[in-house]
Specification:
Length: 281
């Protein structure tokens, strides 16, 4: 029986496959990162189903979130599909649908405003505008690159991600603020959010800058990260619109089940709903 070994050349071929499959840059980077982490665990051994299962169990013992583990397993299973080694694929860990989110992870409107004020007090206008742009449009942090001077002037952004194209509308106030930001920083064309050297911002830098605001604001670090701004947008949108299908389109989700995760209420709100039922005499 032929040993199942993976070389650097195999990983390069897998990466090319993902590119041809039109996966987003961020998705490709994640898949390759997950695959390399698995191969590091295998430590040069020929791959077997037993090794993959052991790796899965090892992730569980390290207290990774179940969704994170399933995401990593998905990357590895995609590699096995590509290689035709489907007998090595493992099942995801089953997750019971959450009915409310933990209080310590919910980013509230007050937190949102405090983060903006803190960024501005530190003279970090770029971070302030990034927080407002993600929070005000619901985009992914990777989609900030679509915010160009030209697109903002038009009042809408056309975003292509994960094989889908959607149009993001920019409210008048955000449009004005973004154009004033561009003017102050002498950005006349192209991407708005760039480094001093004119290069696109790295998501890890945005993540670190946001975390640096926690100390001054007193906001728990667990709830301060770019993607949570997208969740805040989703909850606020749904509170007004009550149309989950439309929200899924705005967020660029293929499945409404994904959108459901963005709008689950907090434990406090869930308790209020139970109290309102008045079924205890």
């Amino acid at each position: 029986m032929m040993l199942k070994m993976i070389s650097l050349e195999t990983i390069e071929q897998f990466e090319k496959h993902l590119i041809f499959d039109e996966k987003s840059k961020a998705t490709i980077e994640k898949y390759i990162r997950d695959v390399k982490a698995f191969l590091n665990y295998a430590n040069g051994q020929a791959l077997t189903k037993e090794i993959v299962i052991t790796y899965k169990n090892n992730l569980v013992t390290k207290n990774y979130a179940v969704r994170s583990i399933n995401s990593m397993l998905s990357s590895i299973n995609s590699l096995f599909d590509f290689l035709g080694w489907r007998e090595l694929k493992v099942k995801n860990i089953k997750i019971q649908q959450q009915i409310f989110c933990p209080e310590e992870k919910e980013l509230k409107q007050e937190d949102f405003r405090n983060l903006i004020c803190s960024a501005e007090s530190k003279n970090n206008e770029r971070l302030s505008m990034i927080i407002q742009t993600i929070g005000g449009t619901g985009i992914r942090v990777s989609e900030l690159s679509y915010f160009t001077v030209e697109a903002v002037k038009s009042g809408s952004i056309m975003i292509t991600c994960k094989g889908k194209t959607r149009r993001i509308m920019i409210v008048k106030k955000l449009k004005e603020k973004l154009l004033m930001y561009a003017k102050r920083h002498k950005i006349t064309n192209g991407q708005l959010f760039i480094t001093k050297g004119g290069k696109p911002l790295d998501r890890s830098n945005i993540w670190r800058e946001m975390k640096s605001l926690c100390k001054d604001t007193g906001i728990c670090e667990k709830k301060v990260f770019p993607h949570n701004l997208r969740h805040l947008f989703a909850r606020m949108f749904y509170k007004i619109e009550k149309d989950i299908a439309k929200l899924a389109d705005v967020l660029g989700h293929s499945s409404i089940n994904t959108t459901r995760l963005y709008i689950i209420s907090t434990g406090e709100e869930h308790m209020k709903q139970l109290e309102m039922m008045r079924l205890i005499i």
